[in-house]
TrEMBL record:
It comes from Novosphingobium beihaiensis. The keyword Lyase does not apply. Homodimer. Residues 44-268 form the Radical SAM core domain. This is Biotin synthase. Keywords: 2Fe-2S, 4Fe-4S, Biotin biosynthesis, Iron, Iron-sulfur, Metal-binding, S-adenosyl-L-methionine, Transferase.
Amino acid sequence: MTEAPQTEPRTDWTREEIAALFDLPFTELVFRAAEVHRANHAANEVQLSTLLSIKTGGCAEDCGYCSQSVKADSGVKATKLMDVQAVLQRAAQAADQGSTRFCMGAAWRNPKDRDMPAIIEMVKGVREMGMETCMTLGMLTPEQADMLKEAGLDYYNHNIDTSPERYDQVITTRTMEDRLDTLSEVRRAGINVCSGGIVGMGETREDRVGFVHTLATLPDHPQSVPVNALVPVKGTVLGDMLADTPMAKIDDVEFVRTVAVARITMPHSMVRLSAGRESMSEMTQAMCFMAGANSIFTGDKLLTAPNAGDDTDAAMFARLGLKAMAISETQEQVDASRMPKGCVKMEPAE
């Protein structure tokens, strides 16, 4: 494959253009996505990230996919915020396993000010280990965003979940605009944005077009774009719905298409193959990597959902000839994604 010229990010994508990408013949779409990926990222390198639930269950939101909502009858028990040292111990274990980013998630609508000192200590402690830090805590006030920036937080995750048109069929306790406002605060504070969503929630392709369009037309593309396949959990609205209508589940080809379109429209972003990998075949995951996914969550658990596991991933990487991205390489990707449009990174003269 010949190397394509580096792609300048566009934020003026139309829905019609994105729909046309989805409609391409599958092999043509994957080929184009692979060209964009190789022009903007190192081929065959994948970032390893670890996700830890630092406060589980009892969330006041009614997200239809989430086992941690108080509205769900999923059996998930509410816990208090983890002790700082316990979190740092888990981060150290993740670093030993090769993770370069440590993501911490709390099941909150929004953090309380009384929780911020502990959160800040977690961020500082993980950064001291040399890993990138990511937090997902719900909606943020401007003051909280500034505190996280001052502590050195690298990424803040706040997914838009789905298309604007389908949003209120999935969540009613907050709006898409609420989510976009939080992303705006994160950008204002100078923190990298991690924002994606979930497919396989019974949505249409038009919804997937709207989901990608919303992210690809933000003032700046998210530096990380997680693409999740719904993990149906009994006792949640969507988990029970899919149990009754299994045809609503997204098929593997359509999932790979979504990854490929995300890569083409957001060329500098890290596209993360996230929840749902434990039920995907190795070949489906391989197609996702070919289509531009270059980040995964490792370990055997994602918050409360199962994950593939370190040993399984290591064996897959060996068979596919993939290698884990080093921390310096992930930072280069971040720096490139945040450069003003039209700028070219200059290499030092020899």
